[in-house]
Design goal:
With 180 residues, this protein is mainly α. The chain has eight helices and four strands. Strand 2 and strand 3 form a beta hairpin. Helix 6 packs across helix 8 and helix 7 packs across helix 8.
Length: 180
């Protein structure tokens, strides 16, 4: 079976020839594997290690920053690079909804729109995806995003103290990803 056939069998609740595998690692680990295994691409790495990895595609955003903060992402969240010696990771550097005290303020916030993507590019990219791979699209961790926008401690307290704020914000986040 090809990696695509393996994944599709699994999704159809059929028995593939083996359990499909995927690959997630930091850039530093991937670069080291490229060097150690003498691979020049992820496709070559997947083939060498018998990984059924998914082909990840996203429609490119046409708006890259929040309109109220050119240093923030589309949600208004800034990130800062933190070094851990062998590489770095992103940490949330601000929480744009930290001071919100009402559902009305949540609704008044400038939320991103799924229309702010280049879907023509996306259509072409899907048509050109490797035919032996399944296409994976979408990253969706609504509560993690809520925590980034509100601050972890406040987000956790909101679950008990302000559930209507949680619901309103998660509705906006869900609507964006649903439309996307």
């Amino acid at each position: 079976m090809t990696p695509r056939e393996r994944w599709l069998a699994l999704f159809a609740r059929e028995k593939p020839d083996r359990i499909p595998t995927d690959y997630w690692a930091t850039d530093e680990v991937t670069e080291r594997l490229f060097r150690e295994l003498r691979c020049s691409s992820k496709e070559e790495l997947y083939t060498r290690l018998h990984i059924d990895g998914l082909y990840h595609l996203e429609p490119p955003r046409t708006v890259l920053h929040h309109p109220n903060d050119p240093e923030a992402d589309i949600w208004g969240v800034r990130r800062s690079k933190i070094s851990y010696g062998a590489g770095e990771y992103d940490e949330f550097a601000n929480h744009p909804l930290a001071g919100v005290t009402s559902v009305e303020e949540i609704h008044a916030y400038h939320w991103p729109s799924a229309e702010e993507h280049d879907y023509e590019w996306y259509r072409k990219a899907i048509r050109n995806a490797p035919p032996h791979r399944c296409v994976r699209s979408g990253d969706f961790e609504p509560f993690l995003l809520y925590c980034a926008m509100r601050g972890m401690e406040q987000a956790m307290m909101d679950l008990i103290a302000e559930p209507e704020i949680v619901t309103a914000a998660l509705d906006h986040i869900f609507e964006y990803y649903y439309d996307l």
